Amino acid sequence: MSSKKTLILNKEQIQQKSIRIAYQILEDNFEEETLVMVGIADRGYIFAQRLKAILEEISTKHIELIKLTIDKNARTLKASTDLDISIASNKTVILVDDVLNSGRTIAYGIGVFLNVSLSKMRTAVLIDRSHHQFPVFSDYYGVKLSTILKEHIEVVLQETDGQEDAAWLV
């Protein structure tokens, strides 16, 4: 694998994209009193925390936050949440991850809520790679790019990596 890294988003751009996504979520869900943000651990959860903070700054909506941990290597759905998923009942759920690649992780995330009666479900990602193997798409995204399969997207977030926020094409 090449050691060449190409910067896709820097810290300021990630912040700008996050604000734009938060406004899109707000506009798409103006009639909702409560939104349930479900962040896929680890980076998706951090991104969801950031979106929640922005939404709380720009609106009066009540925002619930659930941390969803998925075994991404399992061939069947193996997931757990930090809160009971019944709090999402009859509410709009925004499933959040850092990168949408094949769609498997988002599909597993959707699977967790199949037996919960939702108002609607949307997806938000920082980067959509357009390599979907599952019928999953991003409702809200920061950047959509086409890459070759050998390439990888590396998202660095201050909270998990101890480095300045950035997204790299590796």
UniProtKB/TrEMBL annotation:
It comes from Rhinopithecimicrobium faecis. InterPro entries: PRTase-like (IPR029057), PRTase_dom (IPR000836), PyrR_bifunctional (IPR050137). CDD domains: PRTases_typeI (cd06223). Pfam families: Pribosyltran. Gene3D superfamilies: 3.40.50.2020. This is Phosphoribosyltransferase. The keyword Glycosyltransferase applies. Keywords: Glycosyltransferase, Transferase. Residues 8-146 form the Phosphoribosyltransferase domain. GO terms for molecular function: glycosyltransferase activity.
